[in-house]
Amino acid sequence: MLTHDSAQRGVSLIELAVALTIMALLMASGLPSFSSWIQSGKIRTTAESIQNGLQLARAQAVARNTLVSFYLTDTATAACALSATGTNWVVSLDDPSGACNAATSDVTAPRIIQMRSAAEGSRNVELAAAVAGTPVSTISFNGAGRVTPIPAAPITIALTNTTGGACALNPAAPPTIPPTPSGPMRCLNVIVSTGGQVRMCDTALPATDPRGC
């Protein structure tokens, strides 16, 4: 026979309420960090996609020994237009304006090799592609894998997410006036050198770091 001292005790209502309150507080405190991580992840997803698209265009140009271009577009529909701030991209042999939703084809213009819509997991990401401050929407590679025409400077595709917050700043960067606050977003750049090499870098890291810009 079990005695009163050895009998199994249950959880009181007060103990359950305290445990639930602690769990709620822990979840609430971690929610902002989790949200920032999700939004930063969207930047990385888009940056990796663009890097892959550029590498595909370069590889196809070498394999085909002909000009292949990477295009940024405002939409992925039949109404698409080239845009230096577009987060959709198309790799093709011809200008895909007005036909970004065309089927992949080596015969019918715009002879699309591959395309990607921004709706594929990259909403909220903002993009700006430029060469020395001049916007660009098209990056073309020749049969040698080099950018053509040769740009005056490396092409920079900057990716941010203001919905998630400001970019995290490089602590070694010179201060600005007024001071720019460092945010939670790990913003990234995709750089295309004048020779055609493609790399992704983190703007919050110094240039001396292999991962930095």
Which helices and strands occur, and which strands form pairs?
Elements: H1 13-64, E1 68-73, E2 88-92, E3 112-116, E4 126-131, E5 134-135, E6 138-141, E7 155-160, E8 188-192, E9 198-202
Antiparallel strand pairs: 1-2, 1-6, 2-3, 4-5, 4-7, 7-8, 8-9
What does this entry show, briefly?
The protein has 213 residues and is α+β, with helices and mostly antiparallel strands. 24% of the residues lie in helices and 21% in strands.
Structure notes:
The chain has 213 residues and is of the alpha+beta class. It has one helix at residues 13-64; strands at 68-73, 88-92, 112-116, 126-131, 134-135, 138-141, 155-160, 188-192, 198-202. The longest helix has 52 residues, at 13-64. The radius of gyration is 24 Å and the shape is globular. The model has no long low-confidence stretch (mean pLDDT 88).
